[in-house]
């Protein structure tokens, strides 16, 4: 009986450990989901600002379609791995993963780098 109690104890302990591990993984996934939501909201906001600026300047939807076609012909496509600029101070890649709009900070030297859509150098 004592042996069986010890077996049950170990089984319950392993179940609790597995449950704790699942909770940790779920917490990491929730953090990633929040990060993606922030990034998406930032993009939607930037597009809204640019769209309204363009419309106020008299740009038409046909102009936008024509420009998209031109950009696609230059090889730009939607890429889930992100956009970056080269840091003007240290030359390292600065990724646009922050919640700030139109700027990011170089993780190597701390330089604040403008990240306006027209400034983005490359797609990874
Ligand atoms: Zn830098």
Structure characterization notes:
There is one protein chain. This protein is α+β, with helices and mostly antiparallel strands. It folds into 2 domains: 1-77; 78-124, no CATH class. The protein is built from 2 helices and 5 strands, in the order ααβββββ. The chain has helices at residues 2-56, 61-73; strands at 83-86, 93-95, 103-105, 112-114, 122-123. The chain has a 3-stranded antiparallel sheet with strand order 2-1-5, with no helix packed on it. The protein has a two-stranded antiparallel ribbon with strand order 3-4. It is elongated. The mean pLDDT is 82. The structure holds zinc ion. Zinc ion (ZN) is lined by residues 87, 89-90, 92, 106, 108-109, 111. The site of zinc ion (ZN) has 8 residues, from loops.
